């Protein structure tokens, strides 16, 4: 816990010093003379027109699919699955009924007056 406190203190001090340096840098920038204005740059020449797209694009030629069926593959035979031993039956467990919840006491909403904090009675 102590190391966390030391780390938090070190982080807080680092942030404080950083903000002091940032404030000093901002004040220094505000005291500088104004920067010269931006020179006017020449405007670029007109761009060449875009090439035209033909109305119909060439269609690719698709290869023909073979019409003969390949030779049928032999059906694989799988070994039988191993049998697992039967599991013993687990006895049924019945839980006792849950106890009823105790009632929540009422919390007073008014603050009682404390005699020694009240002002003294006015005297005539």
UniProtKB/TrEMBL annotation:
Region (Disordered): 46-86
Comp. bias intervals (Low complexity): 53-75
Endpoints of the signal sequence: 1-25
Pro residues: bias regions: 76-85
Keyword Signal among UniProt keywords: yes
Keywords in alphabetical order: Signal
Protein name according to UniProt: Uncharacterized protein
